[in-house]
Amino acid sequence: MRIAFLVNAIETERPSYTTTSLALAALARGHEVLYITPSDFILGPDDALMIRAAHLGDARPKKSETLLRALIAPEQQRALVNVEEVDVLFLRNDPSLDADTRPWAAHAGANFGRLAAERGTIVVNDPCGLALAQDKLYFQDFPAIVRPTTLISKDIEEIRAFIDDHSDGVIIKPLQGSGGKNVFRVGSSTESNLNQIIDAVGEVGYLIAQCYLPKASEGDTRLFLMNGRPLQRGDVYAAFRRVPAKGDVRSNIHARGTPKRAHVTKEMLAIAETLRPKLVEDGMFLVGLDIVGDKLLEINVFTPGGLQTIRELYDVDFCEDILESLENKIATRKTYQGALNNRILSTH
């Protein structure tokens, strides 16, 4: 299998990233690994879609640091590859990281991914599904029973009224963003810095005001779904708790949250089952759910991370399961000789 990973920039990839772990697992299984960025697509006059890819040649690094060094080494030569010769294109870029400084790059993965899928490459997550999820508004497409009460607005008076309706306070965050950036807890509409918070968050677009869940002080649980169902091996789920740092409302690992073992409850599994039909319909192969109690805080469909953390906590490498699933998709595509569309293959 030849698998290409799309990332924001190869230079900013880290050993701890889930993408790095997936690449190492692919190499260990004998597959060829390519890395590309949003600027590496070329649609030629002959309608051939090419990618300019960083590759490792015959090298089979076993360590994350060795892999990443090889990809950015001065002698690294980019190969021009026809996308039809790529079995799987794994879209692992975060559009929110490019939205301000490189807006052209934010949607390149979904746009060119769609063209790749039309040419027979399996693209995960499905690019047409990802096009629906360019910001957190996608979250509102799921049943209200699993979501905290939410307001999306840029009107400060509407936001003040919403805060007044929730005695436990609210969380304010940007409609587009990731990693816990610009996330604030507001306890009262009379807080002196509310205007500054709204100005800071609203500068990049619409704001989300979400009722605060008291259980969030104990952290949230990241639960991975694959092909629409919880990813698990035996009795171990691909899940971990993220406990926020003292005095912080954010549990993101990037925001100093601490990973712990998770207890996956029947309420969490019920949320996953409620989401499954739409995630399958949208071709969402690998997804990370952030859950507090019986409520879903976020759905991560672009670059859900944490598989290396799970491996450290449980000594289980779920990258193996993910690669095996991709291998099965290639076999299914071959059996059906192109009769199945990419959305079906993505979650088959």
TrEMBL record:
<dbReference type="InterPro" id="IPR013815">
    <property type="entry name" value="ATP_grasp_subdomain_1"/>
</dbReference>
<feature type="domain" description="ATP-grasp">
    <location>
        <begin position="136"/>
        <end position="327"/>
    </location>
</feature>
<dbReference type="InterPro" id="IPR016185">
    <property type="entry name" value="PreATP-grasp_dom_sf"/>
</dbReference>
<comment type="pathway">
    <text>Sulfur metabolism; glutathione biosynthesis; glutathione from L-cysteine and L-glutamate: step 2/2.</text>
</comment>
<dbReference type="Pfam" id="PF02951">
    <property type="entry name" value="GSH-S_N"/>
</dbReference>
<dbReference type="InterPro" id="IPR004215">
    <property type="entry name" value="GSHS_N"/>
</dbReference>
<keyword id="KW-0436">Ligase</keyword>
<keyword id="KW-0479">Metal-binding</keyword>
<keyword id="KW-0614">Plasmid</keyword>
<keyword id="KW-0460">Magnesium</keyword>
<keyword id="KW-0547">Nucleotide-binding</keyword>
<comment type="similarity">
    <text>Belongs to the prokaryotic GSH synthase family.</text>
</comment>
<dbReference type="InterPro" id="IPR004218">
    <property type="entry name" value="GSHS_ATP-bd"/>
</dbReference>
<keyword id="KW-0464">Manganese</keyword>
<keyword id="KW-0317">Glutathione biosynthesis</keyword>
<dbReference type="InterPro" id="IPR006284">
    <property type="entry name" value="Glut_synth_pro"/>
</dbReference>
<protein>
    <recommendedName>
        <fullName>Glutathione synthetase</fullName>
        <ecNumber>6.3.2.3</ecNumber>
    </recommendedName>
</protein>
<dbReference type="InterPro" id="IPR011761">
    <property type="entry name" value="ATP-grasp"/>
</dbReference>
<keyword id="KW-0067">ATP-binding</keyword>
<dbReference type="Pfam" id="PF02955">
    <property type="entry name" value="GSH-S_ATP"/>
</dbReference>
